[in-house]
Amino acid sequence: MTTRRAEAVALAGLLAAAGVTHFTRPGFYDPIVPRALPGPARFWTYASGVAELAVAAAVAHPATRRRGGLAAAALFAAVLPANVQMAWDWRRARPARRAVAYGRVPLQAPLIWWAWRVARHRS
Asked: Which keywords fit this entry according to its UniProt record (predicted)?
């Protein structure tokens, strides 16, 4: 397997795993849905899970990899407000939980870069 293909497969796997957890553990995601979004948090939890699964499928397939990579970059940017919400809400949590919450915010930058890199290299 080429390095570029392995990167795409790994990104698709990460997105698919994250998408599945939105359905298997929605209670983790509901509280970090930004309160400014209309409707119930569970709707947004499930909608983002569907989006992650759809983007994972697009990244996994070479014919749609470029668009999938671009969609993944946009998705990673779109979930940044949820990560900021989590960091804010957990600012007084135990140190380990706070580290997880704070770590999610800057992690978006390398994820966006990774998705962009996959989009640039379709094969």
From this structure: Membrane, Transmembrane, Transmembrane helix
